[in-house]
């Protein structure tokens, strides 16, 4: 199931509009994974995509070792439940112990190598130490509290698969087998611009009719969070010539062109005709809310994605379409997000012909179940809604869930990583 697919992801949509499932399928079919790789130090690999599988050259652990603090001994030396044994050596982690003398015990600590001849470790809480002797007051089984060599990783085993997006735990795993650098796919270069004569940058005077360009920071931030190299084309004025010039430059300098605004049908919306003049448009208008005017095509062989100019629409459509397209283009094998199943804590006003991805918050209910609350406004211009929310609730076409109904929830914790 793809991100937010729910049931019938390719269900019929309003005339002339692609369904969510149809649009996503088209985009992913056009996503060509990068083939160029580079080797980077382990501490610079976070968020990158593994360009080749990683194989361990060593066993982990590299020797039998103690799972806890206690005493290493031979089970055969315990002649009775209260056997007292002399302590012949002390084995801290990082040391190389001597073979265990017959009829003795070794004081041992978590992670320390098991002395040759010992076949069990008794936790210290089950022992009574007196001077240089220890009494074992419980039954002990051979192999107890011993972590065997190669128990976690065997030499020659694959530990990180090709196409894995590297998280902190992957870096720790690589370090545990002595890997200090990883081969990763090169960063995807994405050219981004915002179109609109009304836009000015923060810090500039806000004259009548102007608004600050929040989309530049939202869009570039979303790209950077996915590990992309951003080619910032700035603000593009609302003319066909300027739009064509920005698109052509982006196609020359980047692997993907992403535009915010100008993709609708108004007289000042020039992206669609500009893309059609420079290349081809394969997708335009999707049966979702917010974000109906999403465009996809190619400019001189470079993929192009056009998102609406409303800030919430940009945010939502990026997560639904740009994110999986970018991840697949980076060579990532896990580019789809599966929704969580939760319980509605709201009354939806009326069904819609389009599938809605509404800003929502997942919170624990009084009985411990996860409840989904929704932001009161459906406006795609209310950017505060995406800072209030911690995810999106999926409202399928023609449905109007009420409190207590099961719903699909897409957490930002997954969509923004």
Q: Can you describe what's shown?
A:
- The structure is a single chain.
- The protein has 417 residues and is α/β, with parallel strands linked by helices.
- The chain is built from 8 helices and 26 strands.
- The protein has 4 domains: 20-37 and 187-329, 3-Layer(aba) Sandwich (Molybdenum Cofactor Biosythetic Enzyme, Chain A), CATH 3.40.980.10; 39-60 and 161-185, Molybdopterin biosynthesis moea protein, domain 2; 65-147, Molybdopterin biosynthesis moea protein, domain 3 (Molybdopterin biosynthesis moeA protein, domain 3); 340-415, Beta-clip (Beta Barrel), CATH 2.40.340.10.
- The chain has helices spanning 20-30, 168-176, 214-225, 240-253, 271-278, 311-329, 384-388, 412-415; strands at 37-41, 54-55, 65-66, 70-73, 83-91, 105-108, 120-123, 127-130, 133-136, 146-147, 158-160, 181-185, 189-195, 199-200, 211-212, 229-236, 256-260, 279-284, 288-289, 295-299, 302-307, 340-344, 355-364, 370-374, 391-395, 406-411.
- Strands 7-4-6-5-9-8 form a 6-stranded mixed beta sheet, with no helix packed on it.
- α1 (20-30) packs across α6 (311-329) and α4 crosses α5.
- The protein is elongated, with a radius of gyration of 30 Å.
- Residues 1-13 have low confidence and may be disordered.
